[in-house]
Amino acid sequence: YHYGWDWGPVVMCLGPWRDVYVESYSTRIADVLTTTKLSSDFSEAELDVTITLEGAPNEVRLEVYSPEGKLLETKNVTDSNATFKIDNPHLWYPHGYGEQPLYKLVVKCADETKEFYIGFRDIQIVQEPVAGESGSSFLFKVNGIEMFVGGANWIPDDIMLNRISDARYRERILQALNANMTMLRVWGGGIYEPDVFYDLCDELGILVWQDFMFACGIYPAYSEFLENIKQEAEANVKRLRHHTCIALWCGNNEDYQIAESVGQYGEKGDASKFEALAIYEKLLPEVCAKLDPTRFYWPGSPYGGKNSFDPTVGDRHSWEIWHGPMAPYQQYPKYEGRFVSEFGMQSYPSLACLESVLPESERFPQSRTVVHHNRAFTPGLGPDGHRRMAVYLADNLRDPVTLGNYVYSTQFVQGEAMKYAYSWFRRRWGTPGKRAVGGALVWQLNDCWPVSSWAIVDSFGIPKPAYYTIKRELASVTLGLWRTEDGCEIWATNSQEDSGKGTLELHAYNFEGKEIASEKRQVTINPNSTTEFGTWDIKDAMVISARLLRETSVIARATLWSEPFK
Question: What is the C-alpha end-to-end distance of the chain, expressed in Å?
Fold first, then answer.
């Protein structure tokens, strides 16, 4: 990404930014492989530990501690393997579904001690028929619970990597957690993040979709390069595999899609010219199978189906809105996928963030410096983010004049776009056996410099309105409305396993604020499903408001305004 991206500048950095050190030893712990197993009813757990030493043979002491810090068992081994059995283990769950207990493994040999924090959880990627539809599902099942995974894509949090403190990592990941997110996708054009990133995700219950570092390219596959890749992949899999948060290894970002665009892959492509298949479909899965055999490997993102845009199989990047035909954001239902791993809408950053890089003479919309701080481009046409943003403004709002109005208006549009996307994708979670959409990861959570981009948190750390929209739409219980010719469709989504009865309140207003109709219904909210509440036939309503109550507490609400807002 230092070579430039459509959200980042070209700022070439060279050299090590992490610690460089020298070790001297007679015996050292070269590698520790930990694998966990759970019985089918989750009542028993096994922790298998494999130790690799370098140097003189020596005895290794292993200690396992409970999440509360109690020493459970010790083993002194001279060979490389040991197994610990734990009855009634405390299970690790993603945020919002349970706790995140971590067991501590201590490995001691000679003067060296290493510690690992291990969570017991079962993660499966379910790909099965979707009742009444073609293709198959793509969803995450954790400890027997099918979960709609809502989250975001993660890019490096600064263009200068050594400026990202541990405190900043905690701040950003807490922002994801506080927006009710359960997954971050570490995008393949950045870096393998430092240990603190994964430690925090373990601690806080954020699943990680981990790309290998290949993005939007046609990569070669000559022998020397493959050996280079093998060493990089092995080093990072060994470093990261003990982390409970990692849910999936993914071969690349959009490389299959790029290959399709030049005729090297897909229905009409010549795959014999797609050399990098040797990386994504042979080398990387072999590394994962050897070094991390219990985790799922996925060749690329997007991937699956007859091509990378297939909405019925695998994961999909839904960029027909903003990119491509620039479809209205109200059309997100047309561009879903079984798992939507990228989608988004641009906006300006906060006014404070933007003004920090603008001279006084350039503080107006679309000034030269403002346009420079929008890196979006179309191949063959050049930078065009400011033009695309203007189209979405013109479609939905009155033309803003001041820089402050422009910040507000672009962020308003971004927030509304995210409402349409997440509300619809959650609706399509459906019911068991009919999981049409298994998750949605917005592009993107964060920024690496002051820029107009798809981020929902700008580089000052200030959340945009879209952040709060997503937080609402990823709550445990949500309420959805969809306008029809005669009124609206109504539904609720529930991510939890419990069900319950409630009261649905409906109100319709004109633009003067006068209520023209209202209705109450007693409803049942089904567990871990979408519950359809039918329609409300109410014509000529400018504003339709709905609230879902349990007893006297409002647990979800939604509002439909007449559009376009201008």
Answer: 37
